[in-house]
Amino acid sequence: MIVTVTPNPSLDRALDVDRLEVGEVNRAHAAHVHPGGKGINVARALVRHGEASVAVVPVGGADGARLVGLLAEHGVPAVPVAVAGDTRTNITLVESDGATTKVNAPGPRLSDAEVDALLAAVEDELTHGPRVVVAAGSLPAGAGDAFFVRLAGLAGRHNVPVALDTSGAPLARAVRSGGLSLVKPNDDELAELVGRELRTVGDVVGAAREVIAQGTSAVLVSLGAHGAMLVRADGTWWAGGPPLVPLSTVGAGDSTLAGFLAGTGTCADKLRTAVAWGRAAVLLPGTEVPSPAHLDLDAVRVVEEPDPDLPLKEL
Ligand SMILES: Nc1ncnc2c1ncn2[C@@H]1O[C@H](COP(=O)(O)OP(=O)(O)OP(=O)(O)O)[C@@H](O)[C@H]1O
Ligand SMILES: O=P(O)(O)OC[C@@]1(O)O[C@H](CO)[C@@H](O)[C@@H]1O
Q: Can you give the residue ranges of the Carbohydrate kinase PfkB domain (predicted)?
C-alpha cells in the first residue's frame, strides 16, 4: 500500500486548441477533466497498474465533491478531509503541435485546524503500515513552508519512508530537515534548490549529491524529453528513449514517480520502469495516467554511470 498526500489538489481541465491566440477568443475542439494534483496522479497511476494506493486530500465546495466523485470513478480510494475553501481548478491549453500552457490556481487557504486535520488523516493512514508515503505538489496558503517537514516527522515516527515531489521553499525546507527516502525534482526545480544552472550530467549529479548529503537517500531527477536520472550514494543511472511527440506532458513526472515506486529489481530496472511510465503518460491527453498496455519498456535505454561531461540536451 502506498499513501499519497496532495495538500493542494485540483480539478484538472485541459482544452485542446489548434493554435493558442493570446488575447483572442479561442475555440477548443476537445475538453478533458481529470482529478489532479501530484499525489493524486501518483495514486491514479499506481491503481491503474493494480498497485494498492490511497489518496489523502483536503476538499471543499462543489468542486471538491466533484474531485471525490472523479476519484471514485477512477477507482482510487480517497481519504477526503473537509475544508471550508473551494478546491481549485487548474487549466491546461494544449496546441496541436504539443505546446502546453498551464495556469494553476492558488487553491483555498487552509486554517490551522484544517492543516492539523489533514496531518491527523495522514497519521491515521500511517498506522496501517504503508510501504511508503508520497507527499506531492504545491502547498496551499496556510499550510506553512514546514508542512512537509511535519509530515516527514510523522512518517519517521511510524517508520514509513517518505517520497517527496514539491518545489521552491517547501522543498528546500524538507531537504534541509533530512530524513527523506526519495525526492523527485525536475531539472529546473533541482537547479532552483541548489541555486545554480544545471547544464551537464555532472551538474545534476553534483546537485543531487548536495541533497543526499543533507539526509535524503535517493534523488530521481526528471529531465523532460531527455529522460530521467537516479542519483544515490552508491551510483548514478540515466534512462531515456527515442523522441516522442507528446499529447500532454501534464502529470508525466507523477507517472514517473509512480513507476519508480511500483518498479522492482535493481536501480536500473526501477529507473527503466519509471521512464517507461513517464513516456507513456506524455502520449495520453490531459492528465490521463498510463495503464500497463501503454508501456514500452523495451524502448527505454538505461546507462549506468553516464558520462558527467554530457550536456543534458544531448541525452
Ligand atoms: N517531450 C517529452 N518527450 C519524451 N518524454 C517526455 C517528454 N516530456 C516528459 N517526458 C517523460 O516524462 C518524464 C517526466 O517529465 P518531466 O521532467 O517534464 O516531469 P515534471 O516536470 O515533473 O512534470 P509534471 O510536474 O507535469 O508531472 C520524463 O522523465 C520523460 O520520461
Ligand atoms: O500547483 P502544483 O501543486 O505545483 O501542481 C499541480 C499540478 O499542475 O500538478 C499536476 C501535474 O504534475 C497536475 O495534475 C496539477 O494541475
A: 9-292
pLDDT for res 98: 84
Which residue has the least CA distance to atom 11 on ligand 2?
251
> Which residues span the domain enclosing 291?
2-17+29-314
d(CA 134, CA 260): 12
- Catalytic, out of 145, 165, 254, 296: 254
- Which pTM does this prediction carry? 0.97
Pairwise CA distance, residues 167 & 176, whole Å: 13
Residue range 228-264, pLDDT digits in tens = 999 999 999 999 999 998 988 999 999 999 999 999 9
Helix (H) or strand (E) holding 35: strand 30-36
Residues framing ligand 2 (Cβ under 6 A): 8, 10, 12, 36-38, 41, 90, 104, 137-138, 250-251, 253-254, 287
Classify residue 295 as exposed, middle or buried by CB count within 10 Å of its CB (0-12, 13-18, 19+): middle
Buried b (16+ CB within 10 A) or exposed e, 28-43: eeeebebbbbbbbbbb
In CATH, what number is assigned to the domain containing residue 175? 3.40.1190.20
Query: How many domains does one find in the chain?
Result: 1
